[in-house]
Amino acid sequence: MPSRKAARAAAADAAATRDDGLARLEKLISDAQARRERLGDLQPAELPIVVACRELLADTIAQLPLVNYRGALPTDVQPPVVVQPDPFEPRWQTLHRLVNNLTGPGYCWLVPTAFLADDYAAAVRVVDASDAAGIFDPSGRLDHIIWQGTRYTPHGGPGGALWIPFRVERVGTLGTSPMGACFRALEYLAALWQMAGSFWEAGFPSIALVIEGALSPTQKTDAKQGMLDAFARRHEPAVIDRGGRLESIGANAVDSQLVESIEAANAEVARAFGVMPSLVNVRAGDSLTYSTTEGELSKWLKLGLGSYLTRIEAAWSQLRPAGQTVHADTSVLLRTDLAARYNAYSIGVGRWLTVDEVRRAEALPPAPADMSGPTPAINPLTDPSGVVP
After folding, report:
1. Which residue of 127, 181, 333, 362 has the fewest C-beta atoms within 10 A of its own C-beta?
2. Taking the chain, what is the end-to-end CA distance rounded to the nearest angstrom?
């Protein structure tokens, strides 16, 4: 018979094993709670659909050139403030940060940092929303802007700075972003992600082995392991004895529709940003389709992207003399396919287009002397005779 000392040692080992198991269980529970709390504190800017919409807007606008116009025509010489707004950072980064401020805090500032001889801005700096402060007068109008301890008045000349808000509901407020305007929807979407995280983190069995009668812990482990050995990464017939049977375990109604709920919320958030759901790979649940990418981008430009461009163009136009305006060149977004462009050129050349104008539009050097000048429009596909009607 084992001695009392050996019995006490065995009991101590069992207690230590039990305590160690409890400690591991408590650690697992604590880690799960910490993860749930972290998901619960998920910020709207971290949601995938928000990241996708903000990046699409910022990346798209960052690639569009700004063009200075006098009347309806571009000026022969483009001012430096539209070619390279901030000499200390790439042009795309200036516009990228500006758009991220509009879609994040909801506003930003534009401070002229250098001037031409005529006192019009030669360079500007996009100041992040939190780096400057706007002071309103009692009537709610912006009176001045404070940045780095300097007071600026709201204009585009020397000693001035411009305020670029996205959405201003009432006077005396600096502006809100699409995220701020639909924060409740974003909270619901964050809750869906939290539900998804806890659901996928905990796991859920798809089938259960049901055996009438009580099983010992060893028998339960053996039965489960037998199922895993038979089903894991291979398809083999299931052999069940002891009166057992397999039953499917389905998710409840909320769990089974979790993905659909997230997709529906994603579509609504995309609309709030002025982004068509299809552009961020979200199913909108409607039958609207486009025959070409050009048609899709044309609608986005008119109904979504244009609202951001309007604010940027208005701010840059305030930096230019009266009669001059600044607009983003969106032709790159609406560029048709090669065959369609060439067909259109064949109609216009000799009527309202020259060869050099066509070559310039296609980023080609001027034509040789024997090719320059007006050329009769001949489209061999529609006019085999070569005679211009």
Report:
1. 362
2. 118
* Residues 54 and 47 sit within 8 Å (Cβ to Cβ): no
Cα distances from 136 to residues 180, 214, 223, 356, in angstroms, run: 21, 76, 74, 53
pLDDT of residue 188: 75
pLDDT of residue 381: 45
Angle at 63 between CA 57 and CA 68, to 5 degrees: 110
Q: Which residues contact 300 (CB under 8 A, 6 or more apart)?
A: 275, 276, 279
The answer to whether the Cα torsion of 102, 108, 113, 114 is positive or negative is positive
Q: What is the pLDDT of residue 42?
A: 65
pLDDT value, residue 62: 95
Q: What pLDDT score does 267 carry?
A: 86
Rounded Cα gap, residues 50 and 259, in angstroms: 17
Q: Give the Å distances, CA to CA, from 158 to 314, 318, 319, 324.
A: 18, 12, 10, 18
Residues of the chain with pLDDT under 50: 39, 287, 372-373, 375-382, 384-389
Tokens describing residue 368: 């040789």
Burial of 241 (0-12, 13-18, 19+ CB in 10 A): exposed
Q: How far is Cα 380 from Cα 383, in angstroms, rounded to an integer?
A: 5
- What ranges do the domains of the chain cover? 4-41, 44-198+255-333, 205-250, 336-389
Two tokens, residue 348: 């216009």
Neighbours of 9 (CB within 10 A): 12
